[in-house]
Amino acid sequence: MNLKIFVLFSIISALLLFIINNPINTSSNNINAADTSLKDKDKDKDKDRDKDRDNCITNLKSLPSDYNIEKLKFVCSLVTSLPSCKSNKGEAIFHFDKKGESKTGLKILAFSLIHGDEPASGSVTRAWMERLPDIAPRNSWRIIPIANPDGWRANTRGNANGVDLNRNFPSKNWEKESLRYWNKDMKKDPRRYPGTNAASESETKCIIDHIKDFRPDFIVAIHTPLGTLDFDGPKLKYPKYKDLPWIRLGNYPGSLGRYMWKDSKVPVLTIELKGENSIKRMSDLDKLQDISSLVAIMANKRSIKNRTTDD
Protein backbone atom coordinates (compact mmCIF):
# COMPACT_ATOMS: atom_id res chain seq x y z
CA MET A 1 0.00 0.00 0.00
CA ASN A 2 2.80 2.38 0.88
CA LEU A 3 4.43 1.61 -2.48
CA LYS A 4 1.22 2.49 -4.34
CA ILE A 5 0.94 5.76 -2.45
CA PHE A 6 4.56 6.53 -3.23
CA VAL A 7 4.04 5.88 -6.97
CA LEU A 8 0.86 7.98 -7.07
CA PHE A 9 2.61 10.82 -5.24
CA SER A 10 5.50 10.66 -7.71
CA ILE A 11 3.15 10.86 -10.69
CA ILE A 12 1.28 13.86 -9.25
CA SER A 13 4.54 15.62 -8.44
CA ALA A 14 5.82 15.05 -11.95
CA LEU A 15 2.62 16.45 -13.43
CA LEU A 16 2.75 19.53 -11.22
CA LEU A 17 6.38 20.09 -12.13
CA PHE A 18 5.51 19.83 -15.85
CA ILE A 19 2.65 22.32 -15.54
CA ILE A 20 4.87 24.78 -13.65
CA ASN A 21 7.61 24.58 -16.28
CA ASN A 22 5.21 24.62 -19.24
CA PRO A 23 2.41 27.11 -18.51
CA ILE A 24 -0.42 27.50 -20.98
CA ASN A 25 0.07 31.10 -22.12
CA THR A 26 -3.44 31.98 -23.24
CA SER A 27 -2.76 35.71 -23.19
CA SER A 28 0.17 35.28 -25.55
CA ASN A 29 -1.93 33.12 -27.83
CA ASN A 30 -4.67 35.74 -27.85
CA ILE A 31 -2.16 38.50 -28.63
CA ASN A 32 -0.67 36.46 -31.46
CA ALA A 33 -4.13 35.77 -32.85
CA ALA A 34 -5.00 39.48 -32.62
CA ASP A 35 -1.74 40.43 -34.35
CA THR A 36 -2.49 37.98 -37.16
CA SER A 37 -6.01 39.38 -37.50
CA LEU A 38 -4.69 42.98 -37.67
CA LYS A 39 -2.10 42.00 -40.26
CA ASP A 40 -4.78 40.33 -42.34
CA LYS A 41 -6.93 43.48 -42.12
CA ASP A 42 -3.96 45.64 -43.10
CA LYS A 43 -3.33 43.38 -46.09
CA ASP A 44 -6.98 43.69 -47.11
CA LYS A 45 -6.77 47.49 -46.80
CA ASP A 46 -3.62 47.53 -48.93
CA LYS A 47 -5.37 45.42 -51.56
CA ASP A 48 -8.36 47.78 -51.54
CA ARG A 49 -6.06 50.80 -51.92
CA ASP A 50 -4.28 49.14 -54.82
CA LYS A 51 -7.63 48.42 -56.50
CA ASP A 52 -8.80 52.01 -55.94
CA ARG A 53 -5.51 53.34 -57.37
CA ASP A 54 -5.67 51.11 -60.44
CA ASN A 55 -9.35 51.90 -61.03
CA CYS A 56 -8.63 55.60 -60.63
CA ILE A 57 -5.83 55.62 -63.22
CA THR A 58 -7.66 53.41 -65.73
CA ASN A 59 -10.99 55.22 -65.47
CA LEU A 60 -9.77 58.82 -65.35
CA LYS A 61 -7.44 58.25 -68.30
CA SER A 62 -10.54 57.36 -70.32
CA LEU A 63 -12.22 60.72 -69.79
CA PRO A 64 -12.05 63.41 -72.52
CA SER A 65 -9.58 66.32 -72.61
CA ASP A 66 -5.88 66.48 -71.74
CA TYR A 67 -4.33 65.30 -68.52
CA ASN A 68 -0.88 64.95 -66.97
CA ILE A 69 -0.12 61.25 -66.53
CA GLU A 70 2.42 61.75 -63.74
CA LYS A 71 0.10 63.99 -61.76
CA LEU A 72 -2.74 61.57 -62.38
CA LYS A 73 -0.70 58.63 -61.08
CA PHE A 74 0.23 60.62 -58.00
CA VAL A 75 -3.29 61.67 -57.03
CA CYS A 76 -4.60 58.19 -57.80
CA SER A 77 -2.07 56.80 -55.32
CA LEU A 78 -3.89 58.87 -52.67
CA VAL A 79 -7.49 57.91 -53.42
CA THR A 80 -9.53 55.67 -51.18
CA SER A 81 -13.16 54.61 -50.85
CA LEU A 82 -15.66 54.35 -48.03
CA PRO A 83 -16.56 50.73 -47.19
CA SER A 84 -20.19 51.34 -48.21
CA CYS A 85 -19.31 52.98 -51.53
CA LYS A 86 -19.95 50.36 -54.17
CA SER A 87 -22.01 50.74 -57.31
CA ASN A 88 -25.03 48.55 -57.98
CA LYS A 89 -22.72 46.16 -59.84
CA GLY A 90 -20.13 46.21 -57.08
CA GLU A 91 -17.53 48.66 -58.44
CA ALA A 92 -15.81 50.79 -55.80
CA ILE A 93 -16.63 54.52 -55.88
CA PHE A 94 -13.31 56.13 -54.98
CA HIS A 95 -12.62 59.65 -53.75
CA PHE A 96 -9.71 62.06 -53.23
CA ASP A 97 -9.15 64.25 -50.16
CA LYS A 98 -7.07 67.41 -49.84
CA LYS A 99 -6.93 69.14 -46.46
CA GLY A 100 -7.11 72.93 -46.46
CA GLU A 101 -4.42 75.19 -44.99
CA SER A 102 -6.71 77.56 -43.09
CA LYS A 103 -8.07 76.77 -39.63
CA THR A 104 -11.23 78.62 -40.64
CA GLY A 105 -11.44 76.98 -44.06
CA LEU A 106 -14.61 75.30 -45.25
CA LYS A 107 -15.23 71.72 -46.35
CA ILE A 108 -16.19 71.42 -50.01
CA LEU A 109 -17.56 68.19 -51.46
CA ALA A 110 -17.39 68.00 -55.27
CA PHE A 111 -18.58 65.21 -57.51
CA SER A 112 -19.24 64.51 -61.16
CA LEU A 113 -20.61 61.79 -63.43
CA ILE A 114 -23.66 61.21 -61.26
CA HIS A 115 -25.15 60.96 -64.75
CA GLY A 116 -23.10 58.41 -66.63
CA ASP A 117 -23.53 60.02 -70.06
CA GLU A 118 -21.79 63.27 -69.01
CA PRO A 119 -18.07 62.33 -69.19
CA ALA A 120 -16.89 65.94 -69.61
CA SER A 121 -18.02 66.58 -66.05
CA GLY A 122 -15.49 63.98 -64.89
CA SER A 123 -12.75 65.77 -66.79
CA VAL A 124 -13.33 68.81 -64.58
CA THR A 125 -12.94 66.94 -61.31
CA ARG A 126 -9.92 65.08 -62.70
CA ALA A 127 -8.26 68.44 -63.41
CA TRP A 128 -9.12 69.67 -59.92
CA MET A 129 -7.61 66.54 -58.39
CA GLU A 130 -4.39 67.03 -60.38
CA ARG A 131 -4.20 70.68 -59.36
CA LEU A 132 -4.81 70.43 -55.62
CA PRO A 133 -1.46 68.87 -54.59
CA ASP A 134 0.34 71.78 -56.29
CA ILE A 135 -1.45 74.54 -54.39
CA ALA A 136 -2.17 75.38 -50.75
CA PRO A 137 -5.97 75.62 -50.74
CA ARG A 138 -7.70 77.56 -48.03
CA ASN A 139 -10.57 75.07 -47.96
CA SER A 140 -10.58 71.30 -47.57
CA TRP A 141 -11.76 69.32 -50.61
CA ARG A 142 -13.25 65.90 -51.12
CA ILE A 143 -13.72 64.91 -54.76
CA ILE A 144 -15.71 61.97 -56.15
CA PRO A 145 -14.92 62.01 -59.88
CA ILE A 146 -17.15 59.09 -60.94
CA ALA A 147 -20.26 58.90 -58.77
CA ASN A 148 -22.11 56.55 -61.13
CA PRO A 149 -19.55 54.06 -62.53
CA ASP A 150 -22.13 51.63 -63.91
CA GLY A 151 -23.94 54.38 -65.82
CA TRP A 152 -20.63 55.74 -67.07
CA ARG A 153 -19.58 52.37 -68.45
CA ALA A 154 -22.96 51.95 -70.14
CA ASN A 155 -23.09 55.62 -71.26
CA THR A 156 -26.50 56.04 -69.64
CA ARG A 157 -27.86 58.86 -67.50
CA GLY A 158 -29.18 56.45 -64.88
CA ASN A 159 -27.43 53.70 -62.98
CA ALA A 160 -27.62 49.95 -63.66
CA ASN A 161 -31.23 49.97 -62.41
CA GLY A 162 -32.19 52.81 -64.74
CA VAL A 163 -32.62 55.26 -61.84
CA ASP A 164 -31.71 58.93 -62.17
CA LEU A 165 -29.59 59.31 -59.05
CA ASN A 166 -30.24 63.07 -58.96
CA ARG A 167 -33.92 62.31 -58.35
CA ASN A 168 -33.25 59.60 -55.76
CA PHE A 169 -32.06 61.68 -52.78
CA PRO A 170 -34.39 61.45 -49.76
CA SER A 171 -35.76 64.99 -49.82
CA LYS A 172 -38.77 65.77 -47.64
CA ASN A 173 -42.08 64.42 -48.94
CA TRP A 174 -40.22 62.31 -51.51
CA GLU A 175 -42.90 59.59 -51.32
CA LYS A 176 -45.68 62.06 -52.10
CA GLU A 177 -43.92 64.27 -54.63
CA SER A 178 -41.30 62.37 -56.57
CA LEU A 179 -43.25 59.75 -58.48
CA ARG A 180 -46.15 62.18 -58.97
CA TYR A 181 -43.76 64.74 -60.47
CA TRP A 182 -42.22 62.06 -62.70
CA ASN A 183 -45.62 60.82 -63.88
CA LYS A 184 -47.25 64.22 -64.43
CA ASP A 185 -44.51 66.72 -65.25
CA MET A 186 -41.88 64.44 -66.77
CA LYS A 187 -44.43 62.27 -68.62
CA LYS A 188 -42.65 59.17 -67.30
CA ASP A 189 -39.40 60.11 -69.03
CA PRO A 190 -37.22 57.03 -68.37
CA ARG A 191 -34.10 59.22 -68.17
CA ARG A 192 -35.52 60.89 -65.07
CA TYR A 193 -36.99 57.89 -63.28
CA PRO A 194 -36.56 58.53 -59.52
CA GLY A 195 -36.74 54.92 -58.40
CA THR A 196 -39.33 53.15 -56.28
CA ASN A 197 -38.06 54.50 -52.95
CA ALA A 198 -35.94 57.40 -51.74
CA ALA A 199 -32.23 56.53 -51.48
CA SER A 200 -32.94 53.10 -52.92
CA GLU A 201 -29.71 53.04 -54.93
CA SER A 202 -26.21 52.06 -53.82
CA GLU A 203 -24.70 55.15 -55.40
CA THR A 204 -27.14 57.50 -53.67
CA LYS A 205 -26.38 55.87 -50.33
CA CYS A 206 -22.66 56.32 -51.04
CA ILE A 207 -23.05 60.09 -51.52
CA ILE A 208 -25.20 60.33 -48.39
CA ASP A 209 -22.50 58.46 -46.45
CA HIS A 210 -19.92 60.97 -47.75
CA ILE A 211 -22.12 63.81 -46.55
CA LYS A 212 -22.32 62.21 -43.10
CA ASP A 213 -18.60 61.38 -43.01
CA PHE A 214 -17.16 64.60 -44.48
CA ARG A 215 -19.87 67.01 -43.23
CA PRO A 216 -19.44 69.52 -46.09
CA ASP A 217 -20.21 73.22 -45.77
CA PHE A 218 -20.68 73.46 -49.53
CA ILE A 219 -21.29 71.04 -52.39
CA VAL A 220 -20.33 71.31 -56.06
CA ALA A 221 -22.08 69.05 -58.57
CA ILE A 222 -20.82 69.08 -62.16
CA HIS A 223 -23.05 68.25 -65.12
CA THR A 224 -23.57 68.85 -68.84
CA PRO A 225 -24.99 70.21 -71.17
CA LEU A 226 -27.07 73.26 -70.17
CA GLY A 227 -24.22 75.78 -70.00
CA THR A 228 -25.12 77.55 -66.74
CA LEU A 229 -24.03 78.09 -63.17
CA ASP A 230 -27.01 77.17 -61.01
CA PHE A 231 -26.89 77.98 -57.29
CA ASP A 232 -29.13 76.63 -54.55
CA GLY A 233 -28.23 78.73 -51.54
CA PRO A 234 -28.61 82.18 -49.96
CA LYS A 235 -28.95 85.21 -52.20
CA LEU A 236 -25.55 86.42 -53.39
CA LYS A 237 -23.94 88.85 -55.78
CA TYR A 238 -22.31 86.27 -57.99
CA PRO A 239 -18.69 86.57 -59.18
CA LYS A 240 -18.33 87.08 -62.91
CA TYR A 241 -17.50 84.15 -65.16
CA LYS A 242 -17.63 84.96 -68.86
CA ASP A 243 -18.19 81.44 -70.21
CA LEU A 244 -21.25 80.45 -68.14
CA PRO A 245 -24.14 82.68 -67.01
CA TRP A 246 -25.64 82.46 -63.54
CA ILE A 247 -29.20 81.10 -63.83
CA ARG A 248 -31.30 79.67 -61.02
CA LEU A 249 -32.94 76.56 -62.46
CA GLY A 250 -34.76 75.57 -59.29
CA ASN A 251 -34.75 72.13 -57.70
CA TYR A 252 -36.91 69.04 -57.97
CA PRO A 253 -38.16 66.26 -55.70
CA GLY A 254 -35.25 63.95 -54.95
CA SER A 255 -32.62 66.29 -56.38
CA LEU A 256 -29.42 67.13 -54.53
CA GLY A 257 -30.35 70.82 -54.43
CA ARG A 258 -33.64 70.14 -52.70
CA TYR A 259 -32.18 67.54 -50.35
CA MET A 260 -29.18 69.58 -49.24
CA TRP A 261 -30.19 73.23 -49.58
CA LYS A 262 -33.95 73.33 -49.13
CA ASP A 263 -34.03 70.61 -46.48
CA SER A 264 -30.61 70.97 -44.78
CA LYS A 265 -29.40 74.50 -45.65
CA VAL A 266 -26.13 73.29 -47.18
CA PRO A 267 -25.55 75.35 -50.37
CA VAL A 268 -25.15 73.52 -53.69
CA LEU A 269 -23.45 74.94 -56.78
CA THR A 270 -24.34 73.05 -59.95
CA ILE A 271 -21.90 73.64 -62.79
CA GLU A 272 -23.58 72.84 -66.12
CA LEU A 273 -20.98 72.74 -68.89
CA LYS A 274 -21.90 73.63 -72.47
CA GLY A 275 -22.12 70.10 -73.82
CA GLU A 276 -19.43 67.47 -73.97
CA ASN A 277 -17.01 69.50 -76.10
CA SER A 278 -16.87 72.54 -73.84
CA ILE A 279 -13.57 71.75 -72.12
CA LYS A 280 -10.77 73.51 -73.98
CA ARG A 281 -8.26 75.05 -71.60
CA MET A 282 -7.00 73.81 -68.25
CA SER A 283 -6.97 77.42 -67.03
CA ASP A 284 -10.75 77.51 -67.49
CA LEU A 285 -11.11 74.53 -65.20
CA ASP A 286 -8.85 76.20 -62.63
CA LYS A 287 -11.09 79.27 -62.70
CA LEU A 288 -14.16 77.12 -62.12
CA GLN A 289 -12.55 75.64 -59.03
CA ASP A 290 -11.53 79.07 -57.74
CA ILE A 291 -15.05 80.42 -58.33
CA SER A 292 -16.49 77.43 -56.47
CA SER A 293 -14.26 78.21 -53.48
CA LEU A 294 -15.18 81.90 -53.61
CA VAL A 295 -18.92 81.20 -53.74
CA ALA A 296 -18.53 78.76 -50.83
CA ILE A 297 -16.92 81.51 -48.73
CA MET A 298 -19.51 84.09 -49.80
CA ALA A 299 -22.41 81.72 -49.05
CA ASN A 300 -20.98 80.87 -45.64
CA LYS A 301 -20.64 84.56 -44.73
CA ARG A 302 -24.17 85.27 -45.94
CA SER A 303 -25.59 82.34 -43.98
CA ILE A 304 -23.85 83.53 -40.81
CA LYS A 305 -25.17 87.06 -41.37
CA ASN A 306 -28.70 85.75 -41.97
CA ARG A 307 -28.59 83.69 -38.77
CA THR A 308 -27.34 86.71 -36.80
CA THR A 309 -30.12 88.85 -38.23
CA ASP A 310 -32.76 86.22 -37.42
CA ASP A 311 -31.51 86.03 -33.83
What does this protein structure show overall?
The chain is an alpha/beta fold. The protein has a single domain, classed as 3-Layer(aba) Sandwich (Aminopeptidase). Helix content is 46%, strand content 10%. It has nine helices and six strands; from the N terminus they run H-H-H-E-E-H-E-H-H-H-E-E-H-E-H. Strand 2 (107-112), helix 4 and strand 3 form a beta-alpha-beta unit. The termini are far apart. The model has no long low-confidence stretch (mean pLDDT 89).
Q: Quick recap of the structure?
A:
The protein has 311 residues and is of the alpha/beta class. The chain has nine helices and six strands, in the order αααββαβαααββαβα.
